[in-house]
Backbone:
């Protein structure tokens, strides 16, 4: 009969060093590094949207993967394309890379064998993809370091989830839209300004528009900072999006870690 006892919490920051040691000794040797951003999310959502979303996703992903703890969220990300909107804080890519590097090196030193990075802020995806070889080298050959960076699959999952929950999938644009607004209604309803749900840039962006956005910022495409349409958001849509995205990322991590 196994004496295995799961830790009382999956959050690394709420554990003692003895708790972490015990978890590692029982092969709780996976750890998630959630990443977010502190940036504008239209007139109706708080700047913490991506960080809050990342923290909630990490809990679901950890449960799906099993034997996995959750590192403190890296709350601030690469958000220079949102700097036209007051309150946004943006890291340089080398700063963000250094943070992820130091997280991975610390966690690998303690004996974690699987390190999963994901970002609820798409603006971090390119940096995550670029830093991954360096993170793997720094963590060492006995540690798997995985990062999720498939933005298109994420948006596709959101559209399916929105439609499944009774919303309009065409309202998904990826930023302060029906998916993100619904997520915050589900996670932190008091933070949503329901009287200010608006549409921004709706529809797929052309390559020219995408290049313009990355060069000149989101304000060059959408004056109110919204990509998609927040109207029609609901708690049910948010809950469906959260579960669907967690399954998507957990399945991707599981598939890659088994190869």
Residues:
């Amino acid at each position: 009969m196994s004496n295995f006892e799961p830790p009382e919490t999956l959050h690394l920051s709420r554990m003692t060093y003895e708790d972490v040691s015990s978890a590692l000794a029982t092969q709780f040797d996976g750890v998630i590094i959630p990443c977010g951003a502190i940036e504008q999310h239209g007139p109706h959502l708080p700047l913490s949207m991506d960080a809050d979303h990342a923290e909630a996703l990490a809990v679901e992903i950890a449960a799906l993967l099993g034997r996995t703890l959750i590192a403190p969220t890296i709350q601030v990300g690469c958000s220079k394309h949102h700097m036209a909107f007051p309150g946004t804080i943006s890291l340089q890519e080398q700063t963000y890379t250094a943070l992820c590097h130091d997280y991975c090196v610390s966690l690998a030193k303690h004996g974690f064998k699987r390190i999963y990075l994901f970002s609820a802020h798409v603006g971090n995806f390119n940096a995550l993809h670029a830093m991954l070889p360096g993170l793997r080298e720094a963590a060492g050959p006995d540690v798997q370091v995985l990062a999720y960076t498939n933005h298109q699959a994420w948006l596709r999952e959101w559209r399916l989830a929105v439609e499944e929950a009774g919303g309009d999938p065409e309202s998904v644009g990826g930023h302060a839209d029906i998916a993100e607004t619904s997520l915050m209604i589900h996670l932190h309803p008091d933070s949503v300004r329901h009287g200010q749900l608006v549409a921004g840039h709706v529809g797929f962006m052309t390559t020219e528009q995408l290049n313009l956005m990355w060069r000149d910022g989101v304000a060059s495409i959408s004056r109110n900072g919204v990509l998609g349409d927040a109207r029609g958001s609901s708690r049910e849509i948010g809950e469906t999006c959260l579960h669907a995205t967690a399954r998507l990322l957990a399945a991707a991590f599981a598939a890659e870690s088994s190869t």
Summary: The chain has one domain: 12-257. The first helix runs from residue 17 to 25.
